[in-house]
TrEMBL record:
Protein name from the UniProt record: 25S rRNA (uridine-N(3))-methyltransferase BMT5-like domain-containing protein
Biological-process GO terms, alphabetical: rRNA base methylation
Cited InterPro entries: BMT5-like (IPR019446)
Pfam families associated with the record: BMT5-like
Lineage of source species: Eukaryota, Sar, Alveolata, Dinophyceae, Gonyaulacales
GO MF terms held by the record: rRNA (uridine-N3-)-methyltransferase activity
Length: 537
């Protein structure tokens, strides 16, 4: 339980004045958020502050949105990469001069109300000068800020291990996860029940179905007809062709469907892609698996780093590449999975991928910060948001996507994976324990400089001693596009250069003003480099 600090008499005396001044300023102008952190307010976000220079930015021209680092984006792929380009513009604009004060500023009443509540919370917590806590709250919607307010939560300023911004960021994440499916194992019926908001009686009926009938219901039910009608149709249905999906029709439904996911019985004709496979050991295992099953679809194995860097870290990398090429796989280096729409190597692959894999995604460690710290955690959330948006143009309808992660991870939280998938019409169909997956025995790696002295260990999959292997999960999704145009992909706003300079914990804790400013500029430069598709670390 969080310990709530009792304010001192001086703090109590100062608090009403600070709050009254904050409320008066915001109600009168509705612009304070933008003046303090101009780049943090993004027009595409629902949680923007009251007024923002970003609102003054003219609508992006086709040339701006269709060109990234000199590479032209096809019109039909623009949506797949727009969020990534917008994030880069946000960070780059932070270096620009302040906007012209004579320009008319747009005031959003809802954002003004949110700013009032944020200032009230910070005054209540006696943290009016905590720039990072302010950044966390401004990244929320008005409804979420109200929820934090009603919870009576107060960050513990005397926590032995975590700073108030870290605690606040974790609390906000926990609030969101209470409203969604959990991160623990969940079979196909459980995921289906949650997605369609079915009751316990409906779940019992589904669990009693045989494999043929359950698969029919999972495929055909969309909520437009009563579940009982669809179950009745399933009993009459006879598949026209014999294929993997129609095998053993009389076996128990839930366990049989689960075996299909665990045995990785994917479309034998479709290509599949593996992203972020640093040492390519998973891709090798997948290629051998597909060959043993007689598949003719290609394996497209990708790494984030260039091959020269990989050779410095993994002495076996050339052998892995040779094995993949012997299995007729494609190997691409320097691939950013959030920007494949502007990667010429993926040209012509639209709507062709039948399966996609991304094991233990991570945006890279930053020295001095834990992965859950708000200064760096936005990178992990945006990784998942932009990854699933990019896949929309390349995964064919009905294609599968599997993302493995630890259910207790604080970097890429499970809610980032599931939430980002659902936002982009990838339906969550199962969460299975990683150790039950047929492909789990491969050589995991950190994917950064640590791999030089910490070799991956495939035995019992104990590469990482900081997390329990039995809490590793594989989150399984199926792409079911509605055909409707989705709104622009929201991105988690990065901290501005000013916010970084005002950070007082992590590597900034014992630095002087000049050193803080220098470190803030280095971090900001790294963020810009990362969102441009270049790996650092």
């Amino acid at each position: 339980m969080t310990e709530i600090e009792e304010p001192t008499e001086d703090q109590v005396a100062e608090e009403p004045d600070a709050l009254e001044q904050a409320l008066a300023e915001t109600a009168a102008e509705g612009e304070e958020a933008a003046e303090e952190e101009p780049a943090e307010e993004e027009p595409a976000e629902d949680d923007e502050a009251a007024a923002e220079p970003a609102a003054e930015e003219p609508e992006d021209s086709d040339e701006e949105e269709m060109d990234a680092d000199g590479v032209t984006v096809s019109k039909h792929l623009k949506d797949s990469v727009e969020g990534s380009l917008r994030l880069k513009r946000l960070l780059s604009r932070d270096d620009d001069d302040a906007p012209d004060p004579k320009k008319r500023k747009v005031v959003d009443p809802e954002a003004a109300q949110k700013e009032i509540k944020i200032r009230g919370l910070l005054a209540k917590w006696q943290m009016v000068n905590d720039a990072v806590c302010k950044h966390v709250l401004r990244g929320l919607s008005l409804e979420e800020v109200i929820e934090v307010e009603k919870s009576n939560y107060v960050p513990d300023k005397f926590h032995m291990q975590k700073s108030p911004p870290e605690l606040l960021g974790r609390f906000v994440g926990d609030l969101k996860e209470r409203k969604m499916v959990g991160g623990s194992p969940l079979d196909s019926v459980g995921a289906f029940k949650y997605y369609h908001k079915l009751d316990l009686e409906s779940e019992k009926k589904l669990r009693a179905l045989k494999h043929k009938d359950l698969r029919y219901v999972l495929t055909e039910y969309d909520g437009s007809r009563p579940l009982d009608e669809v179950i009745a149709d399933a009993a009459k249905f006879e598949p026209e062709e014999q294929c993997t999906a129609t095998a053993i029709p009389e076996y128990p439904g839930p366990s049989t469907v689960g075996r299909f996911n665990r045995l990785e019985l994917i479309d034998p004709l479709a290509d599949c892609a593996v992203f972020g496979d640093a040492n390519l050991t998973f891709a090798v295992k997948l290629a051998k698996h597909r060959k043993a099953l007689g598949h003719v679809g290609r394996v497209i194995a990708t790494t984030f780093e260039e091959v020269e860097t990989l050779r410095e870290r993994y002495k076996e990398i050339d052998e892995s590449i040779k094995v993949l090429e012997d299995h007729y796989a494609e190997v691409y280096h320097g691939v950013d999975c959030t920007r494949i729409a502007i990667d010429p190597r993926f040209e012509g692959m639209e709507d062709s991928l039948g399966a996609v894999y991304y094991n233990f995604p991570h945006s890279g460690a930053i020295q001095g910060f834990f992965d859950g710290h708000p200064v760096v955690n936005w990178r992990h959330e945006n990784l998942m948001r932009l990854f699933f948006r990019a896949l929309r143009s390349f995964v064919k309808p009905g294609g599968s996507v599997k993302v493995s992660s630890n259910m207790g991870a604080v970097g890429v939280r499970y809610s980032y994976i599931v939430g980002s998938a659902l936002d982009n019409e990838f339906v969550h169909v199962e969460t299975m324990p990683f150790l039950e997956w047929h492909l789990h025995r491969y050589g995991r790696s950190y994917g950064d400089k640590r791999d030089v002295y910490k070799r991956p260990d495939a035995k019992n999959n104990q590469s990482y001693n900081a997390q329990a292997a039995d809490r590793d999960m594989v989150y399984c999704f199926i792409y079911k596009p509605s055909g409707e145009t989705l709104p622009p992909q929201q991105v988690r706003l990065p901290p501005t250069l000013k916010t970084l300079t005002l950070t007082v914990d992590g590597p900034f804790k014992h630095l002087g003003e000049a050193a803080k400013k220098n470190l803030a500029m280095q971090l900001h430069k790294r963020f810009v480099t990362e969102v441009s598709g270049t790996h650092v670390g």
